[in-house]
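Field guide to reading this record: the first block holds the primary sequence, the second block holds the structure written as discrete tokens, and the final block holds curator observations. Each block starts with its own label. This record concerns DUF5110 domain-containing protein, catalogued under organism Alexandrium monilatum.

BLOCK 1 — SEQUENCE
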Amino acid sequence: ALQAGVPAHHRFPIWWLGDGVPLESSIARMVDEGLHSFRPFVHPDCGGNGIPPSPTFLRWVQHCVFAPVIRFHAGDLPPGNHRFWIYDDSTQATVRGYLQLRARLAPALVAAGRAVSASGFPLVARCDFFWPDHPPARSNMQYMFLNSTLVAPFYGNDTQPSSPEPGNMTQVSRAVWIPPGDWQDAWNGTVIRGPRRATVTLGFGQIPLWHRLGSVVVLAVEPRLRVSGQNWSELVLEVFPAGSSRAADPAFPQHHLLALGDEDVAEVGLRRSGKHLIALTVTPASAQKVTRGWVLRFHLRRGQQPVAATVDGEPAGLHVLEPLRAEDAGRPASGR
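BLOCK 2 — STRUCTURE
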């Protein structure tokens, strides 16, 4: 059920932010709902009202892909048509890349949704959930997605005027508060250390994203139109190791449960052992043992190279992926 602030709204699992909400307000309200209203599953009318120009539409898509729920507004009905294939080829390719990434995030979203049912902790969390002693963490224009990725959407000049045509999005730079710890840029692999403020500049095809070093993200191997159509007999673990000199961040557990079903639960742990050894553990945590293959992708810092890998003490093969190419825009979890 979809509801937007009606009486007894607590009876419904998914909340919609309402009509005519511009992009800036959509981001702020989505982030604040998880803090003030205990609503973990909130979402906007993706695309807003009217038919947005391509840059504005891309900014909406980027925001919605990294939201608890993604739902495009209106279909082919007036006053808005948000079917991405009505746009030019370049826009279509970028949107397709983001939607494929969203589809591959299905295991992570399912696991996060099950965790929400147990704890109420939102999928999209304002940064002061983790760093309450830092005043900049109270901003509702950036957030942590699935406890692992810092997201800071662009939103400038999306004015949503009263006319049917939304304003064009021109913002390509914005200020971001980088939380404590080390953070790897999802687009170029550079690492920035917080806490600090930074200014990021990106083209219309990219959204500011940083992966927390010390985190693990689970993905499906291939995107599918429906979760039920995905094959989870093999999954991908995107691993972002922390530096050897960094102490574990007390805001995050060093082991977390990956619950994909009532009898499909694993405990995933990541640690550094010495200067050159990274240890990842995946331990079944349910009575029923689930047999699954794992593809492990370690995102190393620039200049680092793997020299050997073992699985349960046995040598394992290595394949080094080169940095992202320009045509991978919209697909941070890719490479070649």
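BLOCK 3 — OBSERVATIONS
The chain is about 15% helix and 25% strand.
Residues 158-166 have pLDDT under 50 and may be disordered.
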